[in-house]
């Protein structure tokens, strides 16, 4: 447990033409930046001064739970409406220790899950009081071996005994992940109830939902249609036939994994190609005849496969995004007409790209845009000066909706939480 302090926020209203008007404020805190909002959206700054906030979750009582950095644990922000914005009534640290990224709640809201680079831990949780029980590791065996220490986690309302855990590669090109037994670059599902009895070892237990996925940092379930989705950070410094094509290739990826408990789920267990096959964002820059956006190709210096293997025997994404924009989370709105994606922003590209929250429109459980579309993203919240990124801008990481349809967004670099209205 920790101390309680009062936090507040600032709201900047934005017209349909992104024209800024007079701001409303909660008492106390002003945000560092003034984001540019997409048509129909406005925002407020809920909290500042947090320590590297990553993924977030809204509990059943409408409180916001925030993971902070590698060793800072979890904070609980109790919220209160003030006019047409929301402010923080109190801020308490409810879990201490190593929780470096992931957070999720059980379908009934009574169990809180966190992840670090080695394990997933479950705590009993009372949303009305913020009381947490003693932690119990339910998934182990993911000790850090290189790059990509985040362990994204997600739970299922359609299959409440299931928790999903993503584990990324241990290098930019992790050659051993051509073997499923490496237990990296994949998403696995585990029984929560069995894990509370005896912890699952990620290397040997669980069901593979998808593999050949370089680094999954955000996952979610569509509560209305049951589909499970992931967003992936793809390979850096890609070369083909000795040419540097990394600035615009490969594409980041939104992948569909089907309805988890459906007996006819043809997507479960598919291989998405990494490290041998990566998706194109700029096919012309790749220079392979007939290659389309999202089509898989084999770069230099990756484990050898035939061109036919990439084209015909590996699964590609449902939508694709500009190279190096780094999607870190995805959440659906209440009626599943849109998915919102947090793009943390590039480091391996000049000029920079990303650093924004975008919307992808859906109908009947699937994106409305074709798999080859390059215009599926609709601006929601962007930096006014992307040239100041990454150090002097907001960098979105975690997303979650509350029951009133407000979208909460964490920014790790700036230590802030934003609220988007109109999502």
TrEMBL record:
Residues 1-23 form the signal peptide. Gene3D superfamilies: TolB, C-terminal domain (2.120.10.30). This is Soluble quino protein glucose/sorbosone dehydrogenase. Keywords: Signal. Residues 35-421 form the Pyrroloquinoline quinone-dependent pyranose dehydrogenase beta-propeller domain. It comes from the Eukaryota. SUPFAM superfamilies: Soluble quinoprotein glucose dehydrogenase (SSF50952). InterPro entries: 6-blade_b-propeller_TolB-like, Beta-prop_PDH, Quinoprot_gluc/sorb_DH_b-prop.
